[in-house]
């Protein structure tokens, strides 16, 4: 099977088992952003990480494929595509709570950075927030298509990635860089 089909040369692409839409369609933009997020997490996983964190990120990457598949079809029930849901969100919350227990309390804004792995996770967090904003637009554009679960998952995922970046730095002995705001006189 060839990777290229030439069917997208006109600026359209096919939804999974659905109609062809413009490559600038909101669904395509959203799952393309989810794919970008997944790739950045792959970069983070390419760096040395504790095994529990690497396993968590691998699970998140699998979840993001589920999210992408859901966004790529208008017929998830017919195609039997599993949706992310409350169990997935609860897992993220459990991971957040576990990491936060080992972290010093957050009393200031912090600058993204630290180790290369943590910086990659911070970057993933910002792309995750963009994906979330796009998913909110999908909910507003297609209120009956069940995208709210994706919004909730992406919202919690971004929270998890923020805490995870801090945890990676903390485990590596790298302190958070506190943002010192400047006042304008």
UniProtKB/TrEMBL annotation:
Main location group? cytoplasm
**Cellular location(s):** Cytoplasm
Provide the protein name: Corrinoid adenosyltransferase
Q: Which reaction does it catalyse?
A: 2 cob(II)yrinate a,c diamide + reduced [electron-transfer flavoprotein] + 2 ATP = 2 adenosylcob(III)yrinate a,c-diamide + 2 triphosphate + oxidized [electron-transfer flavoprotein] + 3 H(+); 2 cob(II)alamin + reduced [electron-transfer flavoprotein] + 2 ATP = 2 adenosylcob(III)alamin + 2 triphosphate + oxidized [electron-transfer flavoprotein] + 3 H(+)
Q: What are the protein's UniProt keywords? A: ATP-binding, Cobalamin biosynthesis, Cytoplasm, Nucleotide-binding, Transferase
Family affiliation: Belongs to the Cob(I)alamin adenosyltransferase family.
Q: Which residues form the Cobalamin adenosyltransferase-like domain?
A: 3-167
Which NCBIfam families does UniProt cross-reference here? Answer: PduO_Nterm
- GO function terms (MF aspect): ATP binding; corrinoid adenosyltransferase activity
Keyword Transferase found:
yes
What domain of life does the native source organism fall in?
Answer: Bacteria
Pfam family of the protein (one): Cob_adeno_trans
Task: State a GO cellular component annotated for this protein.
Answer: cytoplasm
Q: Biological process GO annotation list?
A: cobalamin biosynthetic process
| EC number per UniProt | 2.5.1.17
List the pathway annotation. Cofactor biosynthesis; adenosylcobalamin biosynthesis; adenosylcobalamin from cob(II)yrinate a,c-diamide: step 2/7
């Amino acid at each position: 099977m060839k990777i290229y089909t030439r069917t997208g040369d006109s600026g359209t692409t096919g939804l999974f088992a659905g109609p062809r839409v413009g490559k600038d369609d909101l669904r395509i933009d959203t799952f393309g952003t989810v794919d970008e997020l997944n790739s950045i997490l792959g970069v983070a996983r390419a760096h040395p990480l504790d095994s529990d964190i690497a396993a968590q990120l691998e699970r998140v990457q699998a979840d993001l494929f589920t999210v992408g598949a859901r966004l790529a079809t208008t017929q998830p029930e017919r195609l039997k595509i599993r949706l992310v849901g409350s169990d997935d969100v609860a897992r993220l919350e459990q991971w957040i709570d576990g990491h936060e227990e080992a972290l010093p309390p957050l009393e200031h804004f912090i600058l993204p950075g630290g180790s290369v792995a943590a910086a990659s996770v911070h970057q993933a967090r910002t792309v995750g927030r963009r994906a979330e904003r796009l998913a909110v637009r999908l909910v507003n554009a297609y209120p009956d298509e069940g995208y709210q679960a994706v919004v909730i998952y992406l919202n919690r995922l971004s929270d998890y990635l923020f805490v995870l970046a801090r945890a990676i730095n903390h485990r590596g002995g790298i302190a958070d860089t506190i943002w010192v705001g400047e006042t304008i006189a």
